[in-house]
Structure formats: C-alpha cells, structure tokens
Amino acid sequence: MPVFPSTPRPGPVSALVPGLLAAAAAVVLALAVHTLVPVLPAMTLAVAFGLLAANIPGLSGWTSGPGRAGLDFAGKHLMRAGIVILGLKVSLGDVLGLGWVSLLLITGVVLAAFAGTYGIGRLFRLPPHVSLLVATGFSICGASAIGAMAAVRRIRQADTVLPVALVTLCGTLAIGVLPLLIQPLGLSPEVFGAWAGASVHDVGQVVATAQTAGASALAVAVVVKLTRVILLAPITAAAGLHHRSTAGAAAGVKRPPVVPLFVLGFVAFAALRSTGWLSPAALDAAAVLQDIALGMALFGLGSAVRVGQLLHTGARALLAALASWLLIAALGLGAAVLMVR
Which residue of 21, 130, 187, 338 sits 20 to 30 Å from the alpha carbon of 162, by its own alpha carbon? Predict the structure, then answer.
C-alpha cells in the first residue's frame, strides 16, 4: 500500500505564533486608541479587547482553539517580563522625597487595603486564592501584582482571570468617578493626586485619573503610586515565605522559592533606575517595551474570560470588588488629606 506523508504537526514554537501576533496587534490598537483618547488607559483597553475577542462569535472559537497557546504564553511569561521592566519606573529617591510620614501612611493604606479586601472576599465566600489575588491587585498595582502573587503561591493562570477582570473594572470605574468628587469634597489638586495614587489600582489608571486635575496632581499621584508598587516585593516575599512553610512538607516534594526570579528582577531594575545611570531615552524605550509586554499579557488574560460564565460565577466576586473599591477609596482619601496639609 502506498504511504502518504502525514501533515506535519505544528511545533511548540509555531503553535505560539498566532496568539502572540493577535496579542501584539491588540496592543498596537490599544496604544493607538490611547493616543487619540488619553483618558482611556492602554492596558485597560488591552483587557477590553481580549474580552471582546473571547465573546464575539467567530473570534471566540479562535481564542479557545488555534490562538490559545500563544495567548496563554503571553498571559504568563510576558506578564512576568512586564513586571521586571516595571521596576525601571521606580526611583527610590523620588519615593524617599515624600518623607517618612507619607511613606508610613502609604504603607498603612496598602496593608489595611490588603487585609480588608481579603476579609471582604472571604465574607462574600470567595475562595481563599481568589480573595488573595483580588487583595493583592487592589492594594498594590493591579494586574501586575496579581501575576506576581499567582506565581509566588503557585496559583493556576486560569484562576487569575477573574481577579484581573475585577481590578480592571474597578480601576476603570475610578477614572470616571473620582474626578467628579473633586468639587463636592473641596480637594486641592495635590490632595486629589495623592488620593488617586493611594487608591487607584493600575499605574495607567492612576495617570488617567490624576491628569484630570492638572500637572501638579499628576506629579504627586505618580510618586505615591510608585511607592505602592515598591511594596510588591516585600508582600510577595512574605507570601512566599508563608507558602514555603506550609508547602512541601511531604518527603521529596520540592518547596516553592521564597521570591520568584522575576520579582528579584523587578527589585534589581528599581535599584538600577535609582542610580540615575539610565538616560531618559533608555527609560522611555523601556516604558514602551513594558507597555507592549503587559498589554499582550492582559489581552491574553482577557481573551480567556467568557462573559456568560463571569456573570454566572462572578456575581459575589463583583459585589466583593465594589465593597473593596469603596474601602480603598476611603483609606486613600484619609491618607491623602494627612499627607498634603
């Protein structure tokens, strides 16, 4: 009998290409829309485009089929790469310039928000790992923090999808709601900037929120926000120590690392930024690279969300997220008033 050559199966690398190309195209589109409409953060748009791709007939089958391998790769590995590059945004000199009182207040807000959000999640009967991820994302720096905590605690990538969707939704809500409260609350630009930096989740969302009150508000917001970002390293390290002490008790089971390499990379890049050795051009290039990596990762995560399933399984999570959003907004406002007097 004649033997017909079989169709070659795509290798591991070639299987990633369709999803990665789609994620890259989505980021280009998100950055273009952000350029035209600056109030819309590019990272939020990347998640939104992922959600659309996952739920539009015709595209949804592709995101769960041929494109899934590359999208999952982006959601995991490019997220970690983006977290490392995020360290180049953090200058320890700028953070220390806030003064010790402000640093203590910001740290207090992060710890209280973390504990309070975790407690709210458990009160609404969310699983412990979902409560942990939501608490991390809401209190520190959004989806980046969720990705870091998931890696430390060995939480499946699929379980990060709901927390990322919630932190994106509530951060977007802050962009629309917080500026409306400037006049009723009688906030100065500096106080409003500190409030945005202390309570809004993602860096891009902080910028979009604070810039509505002018350059002085934006300057304060970015420094306060990046102070929260610095706390990503100690909080994930503490979570890693706790997980290490409770995991791997059985003989022959490898215990997880205290701190993943990419979190150490984040710390190293923050230290590098603080030396002042990098030129503005290098920092600008790194910022673009970070946007591309995180944007592709967020598109990948968003493309795994099925709205029907989210509405069915995420109602309690949505209520918990809104309650947590109100808690963090109140904590951040109190800290902002005390910081800028």
Answer: 21
What would the pLDDT profile of 316-332 be if each residue is shown by its tens digit? 899 999 999 999 999 99
Q: Nearest-CA neighbor of 292 among 10, 19, 25? A: 25
String of DSSP letters for 146-197: HHHHHHHTT--GGGGHHHHHHHHHHHHHHHHHGGGGHHHHT--HHHHHHHHH
Per-position b or e across 161-192, b if 16+ CB within 10 A of its CB: bbbbbbbbbbbbbbbeebbeebeeeebbbbbb
The two three-digit tokens of residue 39, written as one number: 């109030």
- Among residues 28, 135, 145, 15, the alpha carbon closest in space to that of 82 is found at 145
Locus of tokens 């003989």: 251
Instruction: Answer for the pair 141, 171: CB distance below 8 angstroms, yes or no.
Output: no
Task: Give the Cα separation of 134 and 164 in Å (integer).
Answer: 8
Q: What is the pTM of this model?
A: 0.86
Nearest to 210 by CA among 219, 105, 201: 219
Question: How far apart are the C-alpha atoms of 339 and 106, rounded to whole Å?
Answer: 9
CA distances from 239 to 45, 86, 220, 258 (A): 30, 20, 29, 8
Instruction: Report the length, in residues, of the chain.
Output: 341
Whether the per-residue pLDDT at 185 is higher than 90: the answer is: yes
- In the numeric block, the tokens 């999803």 are attached to 19
